[in-house]
Amino acid sequence: QVQLVESGGGLVQPGGSLRLSCTASGFIPGFFAMAWYRQTPGKQREFVAVITSDGNTNYADSLKGRFTISRDNAKNTVYLQMNSLKSEDTAVYYCKRGATWGQGTQVTVYS
User: Fold this and answer.
1) Cβ(47)–Cβ(60) under 8 Å?
2) CA atoms of 70 and 56, how far apart (whole Å)
3) Mean pLDDT per segment of 10 residues, for the chain of length 111 residues?
């Protein structure tokens, strides 16, 4: 059974950093493209970043330079390092592989 579990969300002040983790089970994430999305109430879920099986990465234009996606195949985990966080980064962050989504982890940036 394919399962994705996110963790690492929390409360952080503007300018702070968080690292989100997405741990996979039921498949080997190194063989697949893995992505992060985020969603705020009343808005559509939006693309954040993707990492391919080859390790290539791509980001939403507005997040380039602040967010970094990476993977540790030995741990079956994909990460999202978020730096210089802003209030507009507040959202539920989801991990995705194909049609499978995790349950999400809340990130709140507050001052």
Assistant:
1) yes
2) 9
3) 94 98 84 94 96 95 96 92 97 94 97 84
What number of other Cβ atoms are within 10 A of residue 19's Cβ? 13
Helix (H), strand (E), coil (C) string for the chain: CCEEEEECCEEECCCCCEEEEEEEECCCHHHCCEEEEEECCCCCCEEEEEECCCCCEEECHHHCCCEEEEEEHHHCEEEEEECCCCHHHCEEEEEEECCEECCCEEEEECC
Residues 6+ apart with CB under 8 A from 55: 71
As a whole number of angstroms, the distance between CA 111 and CA 27 comes to: 40
